[in-house]
Amino acid sequence: MGPVAPAPPAFAFERATKLYGDLLALSELTLEVPPGVVFALVGPNGAGKTTAIGLLTGLLAPTAGRATVFGIDVEEDPVRAKRRLGFVPDRPYLWPRWTPRETLRFVGAVFGAKGAALEERIEAELEAFGLGAAADRTNETLSHGTRQKVALAQAFLHDPSLLVLDEPMVGLDPLAQKGLAERLKERTAAGAAVLLTTHHLALAEEVADEAGVLVKGRLVARGTPLAVSARGATGRLSELFFDLAADGGEP
Amino acid sequence: MSAGAVSFANALRAAGRSLSPRSTAEAAGVLAVGLFSGAFVVGEYAGLAHLLRLGRSAATQLPALVPEILLERLLLGAFAGAGVLLLLGALTTAVSTLFLSEELLLRMALPIPHARLLLRQVAATIALASGPAALVALPAVVLAARSGAEGAAALGAAFLAVAVLAGAAGSALALAVVAVFPPRRARLLAAFLSATGLAVAIVGARGVRPERFLDPSAALDLLLRAGTTPLAEPGGNPVAIAARAAARALAGDAAGLLHALLLLGGAALLTVLLAQLLAPLHLRLLRRSREEADATPRRRVGRKAASAERELLRAEVRTLLRDAATPAQLGTLAAVFVLDLLNLKLLPGGDAASRDLVHGLQSGLGLFLVSALALRFAFPAVSTDGRAALLLKSLPLSAARHLVVRWTVRAAPSLAAALLLAGASAWALEARGFPLGAALAVAAVGGLAIPALQLGLGALFPRYDAPNPVSVALGPGGLVAMGLSTLLSLAPVLVVSEELRGLAETLLGARLDGRLLLAAWGATSAALATAAMLAAARRLPRVDVSSS
Questions:
Q1: Phi-psi region for residue A24, left (φ > 0), alpha (ψ -120 to 50) or beta?
Q2: Other C-beta atoms within 10 Å of A179: how many?
Q3: Which of B44, B122, B201, B274 has fewest C-beta within 10 Å?
């Protein structure tokens, strides 16, 4: 019997680079995150957070390097990679004339769920995100926060091994934010990994097991929120963030 | 249920919701569309049934006529026309469904193979683009069903095959256009190409002078030629194959239905293969278009802000020119303009009295076109602010001042169109003296007053939540505005044409002075336009944006 291959990371970027014309959006990003970890990617607007997420979800192709999900190259086998993913984009795009229930039913069916089991799961997610009253109204009539909850519910629906959440807290009330933070902890306790981008630095400190600071497409700091924060003058992530953003990534 | 079945069921329910009105205004709109569609289908059915009876009667009186040949030729023309229209429609639709759809981005993040995703979007393109053509085809299929189910099925299958092929070709063409231009610009170009294609078709149809077939001998000659000259073998031409298959099935040949179904199957298979083949290219173009949207635009040399009026003026011009439907509608307008001139050139020369009569009618027609133009470009001007109205209302900007700026921009195309139409008509009809001056004055006053009237009426009850300017224009307010401006367009007929004025004098038993009529009409137009603008300026600050 040969040696047992090490388990692949939940997600990884290997010297991933992305150019938009002349603009360098992501510069040789190298990062590996194991299962069971909430990883918060923070950085100022235009730092490359959404680009990194785009590479991981197959919405964008890397100019160089690669992104993998549980060892699967997203470019080479996008469908298999996406089967492991639950994704919430930076804006809650939803089918405007569908209802939240119909949206979840479709997403569940894409992931192979069906019948009574799917309906039960849909009810559970609707309840978990407090969407019961909105379940049968069309998405276009919902408030931004409620649409965000629908986007989150569809990402959690199939118990993904990796949750990729781009600014998930935008539009959520404090109660919903707290509920989401708890659910993220539950998912990672069950072995899933989470990649989230946020400008909500206090939340990143509270929820994340690890954090990375991206500035001008470069990962300039990485570690536990505590360790990363310690690099700043006051030991707070927010202070480090301001310093890095002001100095263009040179603390 | 599979994901595809769930998606289809959701789409059907969503379509049902679109038809379920949420307000009285929406109910009126749905009812109007339903009544119009129903009347159209019934009218076309009656017309086709009448033609069929005439055809049968002609066939008994003209033994040389071969009904199968005539039918196949008619179907060939209908399918070819439908194919071209569907191709043009699919091109514009496909740029949106394949590159600008938010639904596509949603689906892209799910584990769905890209070829299947592309096939789904192409199918949506075909369905969206062929809707109006299907409405036109429906009465013919129902009429065919009266003679037998096989013939109707073959006709339906042949039409569907043409629609699928044209839609798939339009989608492939959209990919080619987006390979060269970014999607938003490509959509404008596609819309312009579609409108221009349609315009060329209309002008071409007018150019063959269809009125000459009102002459019985010319019509008989044409009928005999169309019904006796055999058609060439279809070869690989799918439109000709569709026409022959449907014609055969309608004539009772069972092979016709088989051929039509085979053609439909082939068209569907070709679409699936096309989606497989083009999926990598589509993914590359789609990603590129997203990257272009994300890339920082090149910094332009900053133009310093001028006065508030000039900035407002520039903002209004930008809003007008960046409206996605503008190029297509300007293309259609150009076609109407050419058609109008062609009409004048093709009319029999006639004497001075006939020319004077036509000149008067042309003045009315010119202002009617200006009304239609203003309905599209001036009436929805305030509503198209959408949620930005919240920001505008928070600015220290007088509503009256802003309305005047909007009118300056929105009236310009109307004034230009009115003067061009009036000038061209006067030139073609050799108008001189008072009729020429009156026609130009009417065009100038109408070109300025009608947009002001429509802008003011549109601003009285703005619809900030409307999805696009066309839906604002087609609402109940738009119909009222169009009715009023059409009334304003009618009066100048008496101002410009001495013949018509004379007729009115006889009917009324009173003398009508052209100059006085012109002054009265001009004053009324100006008063109505000013009143609408003033009322809008008073009401706009009190409109609750959030409840709109």
A1: beta
A2: 17
A3: B201
**3-state SS string for B408-458:** HHHHHHHHHHHHHHHHHHHHHCCCCHHHHHHHHHHHHHHHHHHHHHHHHHH
**Using CA atoms, how far apart are residues B226 and A244, in angstroms rounded to an integer?**
80
For B103, the closest chain A residue by CA position comes to A95
Nearest CB to B17: which of A23, A97, A109? A97
Q: Is A83 on the interface with B (CB under 8 A)?
A: yes
Q: Is A98 on the interface with B (CB under 8 A)?
A: yes
- For residue B386, count other CB atoms closer than 10 A to its CB: 16
B chain contacts of residue A51, beta-carbon cutoff 8 Å = 294
Min Cα distance A2 → chain B (Å) is 33
pLDDT tens-digit map of B54-76: 877 877 888 888 888 888 998 99
pTM beyond 0.95 = no
Return d(Cα B335, Cα B341) in angstroms, integer: 10
Dihedral sign for Cα atoms in the order A145, A149, A152, A154 = negative
The one-letter code for the residue type at B101 is: S
Kindly state the tokens that stand for B286.
């789609």
Tokens 């928070």 found at: B394
Q: Which two tokens stand for residue B92?
A: 């514009």
Q: CB count, 10 Å around CB of A211?
A: 28
Classified as helix, coil or strand, B144 is helix
β-bridge mates for residue A11, sequence order: A33, A69
Query: Would you tell me how many other CB atoms lie within 10 Å of the CB of residue A14?
Result: 16
DSSP string for residues in chain A:
--PPPPPPPSEEEEEEEEEETTEEEEEEEEEEE-TT-EEEEE--TTSSHHHHHHHHHTSS--SEEEEEETTEETTT-HHHHHHTEEEE-SS----TTS-HHHHHHHHHHHTT--HHHHHHHHHHHHHHTT-GGGTTS-GGGS-HHHHHHHHHHHHHTT--SEEEEESTTTT--HHHHHHHHHHHHHHHHTT-EEEEE-S-HHHHHHH-SEEEEEETTEEEEEE-HHHHHHTSSSS-HHHHHHHHHHHTS--
Q: Is the pLDDT of residue B7 over 50?
A: yes
Q: Are B469 and B373 in contact (CB under 8 A)?
A: no
Does A102 touch chain B if contact means CB atoms closer than 8 Å?
Answer: yes
Interval A197-229: pLDDT, tens: 988 777 788 889 999 989 889 998 888 776 766
Label the pairing between strands A218-223 and A210-215.
antiparallel
**Spatial contact of B139 and B45, defined as CB atoms under 8 Å apart:** yes
Nearest partner of B367 among B455, B447, B448, B458, judged by Cα: B447
First to last CA, chain B: 40
Q: Under a CB-based contact definition with an 8 Å cutoff, are residues B130 and B147 in contact?
A: no
Type and span of the H or E element at B324: none
- Is the four-CA dihedral A171, A176, A177, A181 of positive or negative sign? negative
For B122, the token pair is 């192409």
Contact B389, B463 (CB under 8 A): no
Q: Alpha-carbon distance B241 to B260, whole Å?
A: 8
Span of B10-19, B211-220, B327-336 with lowest mean pLDDT:
B327-336
Please give the mean pLDDT across all residues of chain A: 88
Inform me whether the C-beta atom of residue A101 falls under 8 Å from chain B C-beta atoms. no
Query: Which of A173, A129, A175 lies closest to A152, judged by CA?
Result: A129
- Got the DSSP string for B161-227? HHHHHHHHHHHHHHHHHHHHS-HHHHHHHHHHHHHHHHHHHHHHHHHT-GGGGGSHHHHHHHHHHHH
Tens digits of per-residue pLDDT, B481-502? Answer: 998 999 999 888 999 999 899 9
- Start-to-end CA span in chain A (Å): 49
Give the β-pairing of A162-166 and A23-33: unpaired
